[in-house]
Design the sequence.
């Protein structure tokens, strides 16, 4: 399924979590690249190669060698300077035409995330390919992939997510669970907007099932609730959760929230966020015929 994988490492437990997840998602990958991103504010000015830069590059090289020795002996290595972890991983992924970026979840406290930023979130923003996030401690308990959950609402972005999850299920022999969540109706502009609960869940579910039909011939499980909460609960019962990416404007993101960003912090299992467009994998999925789903 995934054959060209970029794994972000930084010498902390999250790097080991990311490598463990990469082995699960891409066991037969032909190319794995370990990447360490060096912060731009610690790099020298353009044209200046000072002692600090030499020290940082040597430290980065030793870190990469240690990570490769501990879990990915055949992996390539690269150290890059970038303004954020996300930007650095994006640049490497684009340069190497990677089809998956894997990172570890944030080990910091909630306060720490606010103060120094969330690396996982920076990776999700406008990623050039699918992004997988390993939950904290995943390297200590890397479970086989037996159930894959996917968020689906009939949109083009969720169709990409379904294609990725169906191909991954085909490659691993996993059961595919397709979940659509009918959420509250949002109304009003950004200022003073509100929402209301669904008055008759049975009617809403029936209407949604009629609207969606079968997803490539597979049954779609429709539930009522807030999407981010329902999908987080689904993550407790599957081995991988897949959702699509919507590159929304800032106002809409503030109003509705970002499900993928929420799940990157609250998913109980590994999360895969697919790109907003991936014609190649959608075509490959359709060529599979009807996926088996529960």
Sequence:
């Amino acid at each position: 399924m995934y054959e060209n994988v970029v794994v972000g490492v930084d010498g902390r437990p999250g790097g080991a979590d990311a490598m463990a997840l990469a082995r699960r998602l891409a066991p037969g990958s032909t190319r794995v690249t370990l990447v360490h991103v060096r912060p731009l504010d610690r790099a020298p000015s353009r044209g200046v190669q000072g002692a600090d830069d030499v020290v940082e590059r040597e430290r980065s090289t030793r870190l990469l060698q240690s990570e490769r020795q501990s879990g990915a002996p055949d992996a390539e290595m690269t150290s890059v300077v970038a303004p954020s972890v996300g930007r650095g991983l994006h640049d490497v992924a684009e340069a190497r035409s990677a089809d998956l970026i894997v990172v570890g979840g944030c080990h910091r406290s909630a306060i720490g995330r606010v103060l120094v930023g969330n690396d996982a979130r920076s990776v999700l923003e406008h990623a050039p390919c699918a992004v997988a996030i390993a939950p904290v401690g995943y390297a200590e308990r890397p479970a086989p992939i037996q159930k894959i959950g996917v968020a689906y609402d009939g949109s083009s972005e969720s169709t990409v997510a379904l294609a990725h999850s169906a191909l991954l299920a085909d490659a691993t022999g996993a059961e595919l669970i397709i979940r659509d969540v009918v959420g509250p109706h949002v109304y009003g502009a950004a200022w003073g907007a509100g929402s209301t609960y669904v008055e008759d869940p049975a009617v809403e579910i029936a209407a949604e099932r009629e609207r969606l039909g079968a997803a490539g011939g597979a049954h779609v499980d429709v539930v009522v609730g807030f999407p981010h909460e329902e999908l987080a609960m689904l993550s407790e019962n599957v081995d991988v959760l897949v959702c699509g990416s919507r590159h929304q404007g800032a106002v809409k993101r503030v109003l509705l929230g970002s499900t993928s960003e929420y799940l990157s912090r609250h998913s109980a299992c590994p999360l895969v966020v697919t790109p907003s467009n991936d014609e190649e994998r959608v075509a490959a999925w359709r060529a599979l015929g009807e996926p088996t789903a529960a």
Observations:
- The CA atoms of residues 78 and 169 lie 31 Å apart.
- The chain has two domains: 4-140, 147-288.
- Residues 51-71 form the longest helix (21 residues).
